[in-house]
Design brief:
By secondary structure, the protein is an alpha/beta fold. Helices cover about 40% and strands about 20% of the residues. About 40% of the residues are buried.
């Protein structure tokens, strides 16, 4: 429909038609943009448009519902049109709004980091369960990205300290800013480097209650990887070298044995179908209590193991 294109398409032709929508009520723009995104195969078009419109207008999403009759025009309409058009090209809503909800946190997110996924909350919850009764725990979060895992843990447990690492300096900037904004920077520390290497000389190394990680686990060329993810999210966050999706997880599991206290927990997020490979790797490294936990969709998502000597 021409009207739909007017909302979302920044082309000259579309702009030429914008006069017809100038001062159109918010609800009409919302509906037309939703239909336009739906036509591009996006799974949650209405929610996406609501988030983008609220961002453009500088209000909470729920406030949109109180302003359905508000006429939109000029710069507001142009901004919404641009955001919806970019969303239609696959750009994540989180990058367009600069914000994303994870666990109980509102995080700043941009194209320097992976957009935190709901399935990673499984890893956070599983870690919190295993740390029940362990006071003043120090944990490591490897490949911290936006800092989402460590910050969610530190937010949930006021006595917890987290040591975070990443090979991406750019990601660490985002994570440090999130920690400071959330007032968690005194207990969440960051360092640049490979896996646990940056913390090898830290006094807590060898005494950690948990090592947690959502490492890259996509094999290049995997047809299951969404085109938009490959196009917009950081390569460093996605891909392993070679053909083993659990390659980084396995290397971490090996290193973590000397970082963890006896009876310490290793929890690593998995790609779909890596359950057996992950179980075998942890068994070979002499972990105990090995399990693979499902995410909310029932997919084996987090491999768990424990060092001996609890
Ligand atoms: C899948 S993302 C996860 C980010 C964040 N923890 C999350 O769950 O959204 C993986 C992260 O690991 C980092 N990374 C990749 N290889 C690494 C390595 N060898 N050592 C440390 N970090 C690594 C990437 O830069 C990226 O930030």
């Amino acid at each position: 429909m021409v009207g739909d294109a007017v909302v979302a398409d920044g082309s000259a032709a579309a702009r030429g038609g914008a006069g017809r929508l100038d001062r159109a009520p918010l609800l009409e723009i919302l509906k037309r943009s939703t239909t336009w995104l739906e036509g591009r195969g996006l799974p949650r078009p209405r929610l996406d448009v609501e988030l983008l419109m609220a961002h453009a207008l500088g209000i909470e999403r729920m406030q949109l519902y109180l302003q359905f009759d508000r006429p939109l025009a000029g710069e507001e309409l142009d901004t919404i049109r641009d955001l919806v058009r970019r969303r239609g090209q696959g750009e994540p809503v989180a990058y367009l709004t600069g914000r994303w909800g994870f666990h109980a946190l509102d995080l700043a997110v941009d194209s320097r980091v992976l957009v935190p996924r709901p399935e990673t909350e499984t890893l956070v919850d599983a870690t919190l369960e295993r740390l029940q009764g362990v006071e003043n725990a120090t944990i490591a979060d490897v490949g911290t990205g936006s800092g989402c895992i460590a910050l969610a843990l530190a937010h949930a447990r006021q006595d917890l300290t987290a040591l975070c690492s990443d090979v991406s300096e750019a990601a660490l900037h985002v994570a440090r800013d999130n920690a400071a904004r959330l007032g968690l920077d005194a207990r969440v520390r960051f360092a640049h480097g490979d896996l646990l290497a940056p913390w090898r000389d830290d006094p807590a190394f060898g005494t950690l209650a948990a090592v947690v990680s959502n490492p890259p686990y996509v094999v290049r060329g995997d047809p299951a990887l969404e085109t938009a993810v490959a196009r917009f999210e950081p390569e460093l966050a996605l891909y392993v070298d070679g053909s083993d999706p659990f390659a980084i997880g396995a290397r971490l599991a090996d290193q973590a044995r000397s970082a963890l206290a006896p009876g310490g927990w290793l929890l690593v997020e998995l790609g779909v179908g890596s359950d057996d490979r992950a179980r075998e790797a942890l068994t070979a490294l002499d972990y105990t209590d090995i399990d693979v936990l499902p995410d909310l969709a029932g997919i084996g998502r987090v491999v768990v193991g424990r060092t001996r000597g609890a």
